[in-house]
Amino acid sequence: MTKACMPRMSPPLVLASSLLLAQATAQAQAPAAGAAHLPDTVCRTPGKAVDETGYVTIGGIEQWVRIKGNSCGNPIVLMVHGGPGNPTTPWADAVYQAWEKDFTLVQWDQRGAGMTWRRNPLADDVPLRVEQLRDDGLEVARYAARRFGKRQVILMGGSWSSVLGVHMAKAGPALFCGFLTSSQVVGPLPAQASLDATLALARAAGDQDSVARITALGALPWTDPRAPGIFRRVMRKYERLRTDPVPKAWTVNAPAYATLEYDADYTAGEDYSWLQFVGLKGDGIASRIDLYKLGPAFAMPVYMVQGQEDLLTMPAPGKRYFDFIQAPRKDYVLVPRAGHDPNPPMVDAQYRLLKEHLSSCP
Length: 362
Prior knowledge:
The protein is of the alpha/beta class and 362 residues long. It has helices at residues 92-96, 114-119, 130-147, 160-171, 192-204, 208-215, 227-242, 260-278, 315-324, 344-357; strands at residues 19-22, 50-58, 61-69, 76-79, 104-108, 153-158, 176-182, 302-307, 330-335.
C-alpha cells in the first residue's frame, strides 16, 4: 500500500439525520472548522448543480463530505479514498471535473483522515478498524441515495479503498448498482513479487543505490514501520519511468486546502492512518488483508481497472482475484502506461466504464 494514492498534494512532506454543510469558498483559507448546520435537504430540481462541503454525522462523529456535480439528478459516484489517510477532496476537482457533467461525485474524508481528523483527532493507541470504516461508508452511501432521490449509488475505490470497497459491497449489496475498483489489493502488502520485480528493474538499470535501499530492508515480512515507505519510493521511481506523467494541475491542492493549517491536519491524519495500516511491527491492517476469505459472490456488476506498470498491486494477483469473483457482470481492463496511482490513462479508462455501463444507475 502506498502512503498516498496520489503524489503528496500538500506543500511539505452518506449517514445520519443531521447534515452540517457549508459552501466551500475559493479563498486561500482552510475549510471552516465550525461548518454551519444546514437542513438535510433533498434534491427536488434534478437539473440543479450541487457544490457543497461540510460535516455530516457519520458513525457517531462529524466527518467531512464533499458533493459536486452539474445536476443533482445525475447518478451518484461514491468515491472512497485510499491511503488509508489520503483524502481525494483537496485535488479531486482538478482530476475529475469532466465527470461532473454526467455524475454527482460524493467524497468523504474517512475517520482518521484530512478534515475528519481535524474535528476528531485520534490517539495512536486508538485502533482504526476496517469494520468501522466499512460501516461509515455504508452510512455515506445511504445518505447520498436518500438525499438525491436514488435507490442506489456507484461505489468506486482504488488501492486501500479497493479493500474497503469490497467490504462495503459485500456488507451492503442493495446500496450499489456497480463497483468500480482499481489497483486492486488482494492480500498482505507488500508482496514478494513486488519486491522481486522492483529489484530486477533497479539491477537492470545499474541503480545500486536503489538496490541497496531495498536489500537493506531484509526479508518479508518487515517489522520496521518505515520500511514500506522506503520501498514505495523506489517503486514510484520506476513506475514513473514507464507511465504517462500526471498533469501539474493534479498535484496542486484546491485553494481552500492550500494552507499550513490544513497541511498540518492532513499530515497528522496521514501519519496516524499509515501507522495503523502498517503497524509498529508489521502487524497492522495490511498484514491481515485476505479478500478471498470474504468469498467470490458480488450482488452487483464489478469493473476492475488495472495499471499495466503497477509495481505495488501487480496485474497478476488482481487478475487471479478477478477470475475468482462471481458477479452479474464483470469486466477487467488492463491499462497501458498506467501504474498504481491515478494518471490520465487510468482516469480515462474509469470514466469510459462509468459512462458505458453505469450511467443509468437508478
